[in-house]
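Quick one: Kinesin-like protein from Cladocopium goreaui, structure tokens please.
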Amino acid sequence: MAEEEVARISVAVRCRPLSEHERSNMVQSICRVMDGRLVILLDPGASAAHDYLRQDKSKEKRFAFDQAFGPDADTKTLFTATAEPLIKSVLQGYNATVFAYGSTGAGKTFTMIGTPVEPGIMFRSVEEIFKGVATVVDEGTESFSISCSFVEVYNENFRDLAGNSDREGILDLREDPVSGSYVAGIREIQTESVQEVMDLLQHGNQRRTTEPTAMNVTSSRSHAVLQVRVERKGNPSNPSGSLLGKLSMIDLAGSERAAETKNQGVRLLEGANINRSLLALGNCINALASGSHFVPYRDSKLTRLLKDSLGGNCKTVMIATTSPGHLSYEDTLNTLKYANRAKNIRVRAKQNLVTPDEHVSQYEHAIADLRNEVAIL
Ligand code: ADP
Ligand code: MG
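--- reply ---
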């Protein structure tokens, strides 16, 4: 029997340190983290910088999350507390998702992808998966197959960050009866080592669509999704079939409004699309948090892809990233409100047990899909 677990989405906030540039420009820090779960935001209002340093409590906004990390917390600490517990679940055949949400410059890419010195959640998770697999393989008779895909949602289109650009036109979302939404036509890479995945990540990240905007020259206008699939054979809970775990890790594009980045022309269209995806994400979070029966997943590519991760068959961690500076007050407040709403979302994760029969039915689905494609061509 497949195990099932009902839980809420786990929401963590990470407030990055002020940058050197911000310090030298007298940017004041208005975001404080207490007790590992409280975030306190001071309203700078329209007054001068020294006003909020008086710590007027009436200007404070307090939020409580599952976890909160201040400027001193490194990514390893964040990883250990948020994503690491999910890895065990993935090896047991569950779906899990970690996504970073926040405005441009708040630290999403730093948290998810990171740098060679401070590797992000994606690297650390994959490393942990390989470690976990090695331990089980050493112990007994089980075998694993691990595959990865890396895709971006840009302008409401999918782009394969691991594959050839000439296949981009045919990428679209499909539903798999066992593992949920997936991007059809995408390159699935069988991987044997962490290094291979890292190469995929580095290579793919360089291919990401980044455009200069007035707000941040390296601002990414795309959502990047790394998915790692782990198929486990020979487990006593399903000896004749397999356990199918999937870990999705998402570095979202900036959540700020298009108007604030002074975008025009093409860039505005991209901004509108990014907002469409993020607006849809917000609407889905609202609907799920209020227990509404209708959730508008179909309104954007991003929400269709994340359907399982939000309120479906998945264990989900949201990492809301915030900038500490007083100039980011509105964005930070929006992010914290958003994250606060997401806390109410319930998910129902169940172990994905694939029996030999289901394998056959999966192939039948795949064949039906291909027939449809041929009919359209
Ligand atoms: P985003 O992806 O949200 O637009 P980035 O991850 O690119 O933002 O972060 C913006 C800048 O801040 C980068 O230069 C990054 O290295 C730095 N940064 C972000 N988070 C941290 C952190 N926790 N510690 C140190 N530097 C950080
Ligand atoms: Mg980024």
